């Protein structure tokens, strides 16, 4: 009986410490890798590309995202493959966008998943311009292979690089 009580108290204290770390890191605008990793679910691996519906000749949709927000090339956002929509909370008009941790080329960034699309084969995520520049400053690659995307639990994340 004493062991069960101690284990329950330990579990509760661990949960409290993680949630306090999340709150502290969100207040500063930068999440630590340990806090982000604790909030991650299953990973998806595939290729990432970039999109901007305002560029001439682009096949993507218009200025509104699936969540109803206007596309903004300067925010940390992305569109997930349509078949992954449910894994990211539905991503639908009027619903609060979800967040994901994107890892590639030794860098990590939290993005707001505010759009979906029928991406080209092998691609799992389309990054907006700011996010793609984080991974490919010259924007010359066009596609980044072997990107890992992890949905983040909760919806109070601050999008941007993870330190």
UniProtKB/TrEMBL annotation:
CDD domains: DPBB_RlpA-like. Coiled coil: none annotated. It comes from the Bacteria. Residues 1-20 form the signal peptide. It holds the Pfam family DPBB_1. Keywords: Signal. Residues 46-145 form the RlpA-like protein double-psi beta-barrel domain. InterPro entries: RlpA-like_DPBB, RlpA-like_sf. PANTHER family: ENDOLYTIC PEPTIDOGLYCAN TRANSGLYCOSYLASE RLPA, ENDOLYTIC PEPTIDOGLYCAN TRANSGLYCOSYLASE RLPA-RELATED. This is RlpA-like protein double-psi beta-barrel domain-containing protein.
């Amino acid at each position: 009986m004493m062991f069960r009580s101690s284990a329950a108290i330990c579990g509760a204290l661990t949960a409290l410490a993680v949630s306090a770390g999340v709150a502290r890191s969100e207040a500063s605008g930068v999440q630590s890798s340990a806090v982000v990793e604790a909030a991650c679910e299953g990973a998806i691996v595939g290729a990432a590309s970039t999109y901007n519906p305002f560029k001439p000749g682009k096949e993507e949709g218009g200025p509104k995202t699936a969540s109803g927000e206007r596309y903004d090339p300067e925010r940390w956002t992305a569109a997930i493959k349509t078949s992954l929509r449910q894994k990211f909370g539905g991503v639908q008009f009027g619903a609060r966008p979800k967040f994901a941790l994107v890892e590639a080329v030794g860098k990590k960034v939290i993005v707001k998943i505010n759009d979906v699309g029928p991406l080209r084969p092998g691609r799992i995520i389309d990054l907006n311009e700011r996010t793609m520049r984080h991974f490919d400053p010259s924007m010359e690659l066009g596609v980044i292979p072997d990107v890992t995307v992890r949905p983040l639990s909760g919806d109070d994340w601050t999008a941007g690089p993870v330190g």
